[in-house]
Design a protein that fits this description.
Layout (H helix, E strand, L loop, with lengths): L1 H17 L16 H7 L5 E2 L10 E6 L12 E6 L7 E6 L12 E5 L4 E5 L2 E5 L6 E5 L11 H6 L1 H4 L3 E9 L11 E6 L4 E6 L13 E9 L8 E3 L6 E5 L8 E7 L11 E6 L3 E2 L5 E6 L22 E6 L3 E2 L4 E5 L16 E4 L25 E6 L12 E5 L6 E2 L3 E2 L39 E9 L5 E10 L14 E4 L1
Length: 497
């Protein structure tokens, strides 16, 4: 037994000695470091790059995204990006003076950076000390596909996007800019998810062009310390895709919330909360609301050939032809005027347009139904119209959908028309193809069904000058009780001008 133990200990000792930690046989340290890792080296002060702090590397490699031909680039900046590390796109600025203009987008470069200095100058992280002797072009014509980034993501992680080429979609400008304002300078821009700065140098080829209402912008991100927001620098005319040169129709009424599942019976206790964006006398200017629940058994089945005007148990219309409402005022469309079903707080002191939908057919179309608004299953929708004669071709002034899927659109023209708002676009933002229906093209966004018996409060900010949602609507599920007051379901939506 003792011989066995000694033999086992000897084997273990030989194993440990034979497994002394060494480099992998035949392995070599890479000469290249990713831009992800280069940027991570910088903490707070200037850093001289070396093999020690670059894990044995002495070079970077990347694709050029800077383009000086449009005269809208920081002077002397050569900008590279790569995604060598974890497929994470990162970029870096390299100031090399006038020679930066000799490199064009799609050039693949190798740059010796050992001995150069990594520093943040004027807010932008840069590798300084590089000359053209340190740069080797190894390829050209590399295709660059910039990612689409929302403004809030850009603001939340500006260093992740700095010195990379990105696209921001459906961008508009601060409503305070007067008509005829041009691109030149730093302009506050918004894509519905927050603000950034669109920067244009005075000599840029597009500097004198008038700001359009809505466009897609491709450009390079710089975090210059002169601005508290990230700056996007479009490089030339082709980085700008105009979606709409002029402002769209202002929605006179918007959807701000709804109750799809009141406590107890749904019949005549579901309702939609709306807000007026201007003073309205419904007797003078008629409006209507149409709801669709698309339940699988609702007739007619199949795709809605007549869209919002399908009627029967698929769509139900309520006309608004009586009463007045003031700009910024909430009002309600439904039947009984209770906040949370039978026996709950009476909120008839608020303004209402009421129709007993469970016992009376809709105005023009829609069969009486116990469920005006779906609370499960296929996608349901609410559309507002600035007229009462709704047909298959009528475009709403506002529309929201929530819930699941269902038979909602079939080419070429069976479906529910949408409008330009925070969730939907009549023209595809990237392909520019026409897409007038829900679920067609990019029009797939919808809100979730709220938890049972909770009010769906839609928070957002609507600009009544430009007709843009500068903060897209988001759903907050509000807990209700039999004694809840109207104050808990109002106040989520803001108007600005």
């Amino acid at each position: 037994m003792m011989k066995f133990i000694k033999y086992s200990l000897l084997l273990a000792l030989l194993f440990v000695l034979g497994c002394k930690k060494t480099n992998y046989p035949g392995g070599t340290v890479s000469s290249y470091i990713s831009l992800f890792d280069v940027r991570d080296i910088y903490k707070s002060g200037d850093v001289v790059l070396s093999a020690d702090n670059m894990f044995g590397a002495d070079k970077i490699t990347g694709v050029v995204v800077s383009d000086h031909s449009g005269k809208n680039m920081p002077t002397g900046f050569l900008v590279l990006e790569d995604n060598r590390r974890l497929s994470q796109l990162r970029g870096i600025a390299i100031p090399i003076g006038a020679d930066a203009a000799n490199y064009v987008p799609g050039d693949s470069l190798v740059v010796k950076v050992a001995g150069k200095t990594l520093k943040r100058q004027d807010g932008v992280l840069q590798i300084t000390g590089v000359t053209t002797a340190d740069i080797t072009k190894v390829a050209s014509g590399i295709v660059i596909v910039p990612p689409a980034v929302k403004d809030n993501d850009l603001r939340n992680a500006p260093n992740n996007y700095e010195s990379t080429l990105i696209s921001v979609l459906k961008v508009g400008f601060d409503a305070s800019y007067p008509a005829g304002t041009t691109y030149a300078g730093s302009k506050k821009a918004n894509d519905g998810f927050g603000n950034i700065i669109l920067h244009t140098e005075p000599a840029a080829v597009f500097a004198g062009k008038t700001l359009p209402f809505s466009s897609n912008y491709t450009g390079i991100v710089f975090n210059f310390s002169s601005d508290t927001l990230p700056q996007l620098w479009p490089r030339l005319n082709t980085d700008i895709t105009i979606l709409s040169a002029t402002a769209p129709k202002i929605a006179p009424i918007i959807v701000t919330g709804y109750l799809v599942d009141p406590n107890g019976s749904d019949a005549n206790y579901e309702y939609v909360q709306c807000m007026a964006t201007k003073n309205i006398d419904f007797a003078v200017n008629n409006y209507s609301l149409v709801a669709t629940n698309n339940a699988g058994a609702s007739t007619p089945t199949g795709f809605p050939t007549n869209g919002w005007a399908t009627g029967d148990l698929r769509t139900y219309k309520i006309n608004m032809t009586v009463g007045t409402v003031s700009k910024g005022e909430y009002f309600y469309v439904g039947a009984n005027k209770n906040i949370w079903g039978l026996g709950s707080t009476d909120i008839s002191a608020s303004k209402w347009i009421s129709k007993q939908y469970s016992t009376v057919d809709g105005d023009g179309f829609g069969t009486k139904t116990a469920n005006l608004l779906a609370n499960s299953g296929n996608a349901a929708g609410i559309a507002l119209f600035d007229l009462t004669g709704v047909t298959a071709d009528t475009i709403p002034v506002d529309v929201v959908f929530f819930g699941g899927a269902g038979m909602l659109y079939a080419a070429p023209d069976k479906g529910y028309k949408i409008c330009n708002n925070d969730y939907y676009d009549l023209v595809h933002p990237t392909t520019l193809a026409s897409q007038p229906y829900f679920t067609m093209g990019s029009n797939t966004a919808k809100l979730a069904f709220p938890p049972a018996t909770k009010f769906s409060k839609l928070g957002g900010t609507y600009n009544i000058t430009t007709g843009r949602w500068t903060s897209a609507r988001t759903l907050t599920a509000v807990d209700l009780t039999a004694t809840s007051t109207v104050a808990v379901i109002e106040g989520g939506t803001l108007l600005e001008q």
